[in-house]
Design brief:
Length: 359
């Protein structure tokens, strides 16, 4: 079993870039500190993945994905070879456990291994395991809360193999939903009163699925994966116009489609999207004590589909906006602001990974 303290929950790290490997593309973000806790966006870039190279978070073709990562790294212009990568949330088991306070690292490691065997449904010698002490346990002054994270070792090894084959050095393996939360909490902190007391729902709408997170005072209070994504719209375009999947995806983003597209293809998709996402909010209400959401943020590559915000806001009757993780950052001179504003929402995970440079 790998127990790599410093990988998943490491402290302040050397210069690194965040690389997010999703179902449809690979994205890279490099940040720097400009003082006074301000971040500066140095560069960002993306490259599409061949269809089928990554399926349901699993890397099916290491050679194809590593070639795309190599191309992306070169295209971005960065010289940093240390990278932070993300694991799909669905492939990582996380659990908060209570352990005695005052244990040293070796003793903690032994206790965590012992506890992990209760929660991990496969042999521990097939597992990559990590943990972090969160802090004192509520109402138990002599104990501490420890966050345990476990995933199948092969899934970690596949991502490491991709980075290394591209000539890069993976030094952090995070969980995609944690990286996204790090990025979104920075945005929430810019709201009046730092967003205190506000219930914020984040929908990361990807190609194949939508990850729903609900936050209150920087704490996760609800999480769910919804089987709905922008790939459905791409497939509708393929069927309607006889295009290749790759061409349909490009034209979906540019809007360069025949006159009947809006009414015949896009509007029904937006209707379906608004129903799915509103249903996700209803699940939140019925499975938690909460009865309201104050703000809905949309992110991910499919959040910027024209009409998505209006469709979701109209059906959910909740204040809805597309969110970019780069809001409030200084921009390096080579970053094109207009392009960054339109593409930013798809970089939430990559940005959160890049933020790991700062602890």
């Amino acid at each position: 079993m790998d127990l790599d303290l410093g990988s998943l929950f490491g402290k302040k790290n050397p210069a690194l870039v965040g690389i997010d490997i999703s179902a449809s593309s690979v994205r890279l973000v490099e940040l720097s500190s400009s003082g006074n806790d301000q971040l500066r966006l140095e560069r960002y870039a993306s490259e599409p993945l061949p269809r089928g190279a990554v399926v349901d978070g699993n890397i099916e073709n290491i050679e194809q994905v590593s070639e795309v990562v190599r191309r992306l790294w070169k295209k971005s212009g960065t010289s940093i070879k240390n990278v932070a990568l993300g694991m799909p949330s669905a492939s990582v088991i996380t659990k908060v456990i209570i352990l005695p306070g005052g244990l040293n690292d070796d003793e903690l490691e032994i206790q965590v291994e012992s506890e992990a065997s209760q929660y991990v449904p496969f042999a521990l010698d097939e597992v990559s395991l990590d943990f972090a002490v969160i802090g004192p346990a509520p109402n138990l002054p002599d104990d501490v809360e420890v966050l345990l994270a476990a995933t199948r070792r092969e899934k970690v090894e596949d991502r490491v193999a991709v980075a290394e084959a591209a000539g890069l050095k993976p030094i952090i393996m995070d969980i995609e939903s944690y990286a996204a939360r790090g990025a979104i909490n920075r945005i929430i902190a810019q709201l009046p009163q730092g967003g205190h007391g506000k219930i914020i729902a984040l929908f990361q709408i990807g190609a194949q699925s939508t990850h729903v997170s609900v936050l209150l005072n920087e704490q996760l209070i609800y999480e769910r994966e919804q089987p709905f994504g922008g790939q459905q719209l791409t497939q509708d375009i393929v069927r309607a116009y006889g295009l290749s999947y790759e061409d349909a995806d490009i034209k979906k983003r540019s809007g360069d489609l025949p006159p009947g597209y809006q009414q015949e293809i896009l509007d029904p998709f937006l209707e379906s999207a608004s129903i799915e996402l509103t249903r996700a909010i209803q699940f939140f209400f019925t499975s938690t004590p909460y009865t309201r959401v104050d703000q809905l943020y949309l992110a991910g590559g499919s959040a910027i589909i024209p009409g998505m915000v209006e469709a979701v806001a109209g059906r959910s009757r909740i204040s809805t906006s597309v969110v970019s993780p780069f809001e409030g950052m200084q921009l390096a001179s080579k970053v094109r602001e207009k392009q960054m504003r339109s593409e930013g929402p798809s970089y939430l995970v990559a940005c959160g990974l890049a933020m790991r440079r700062f602890g």
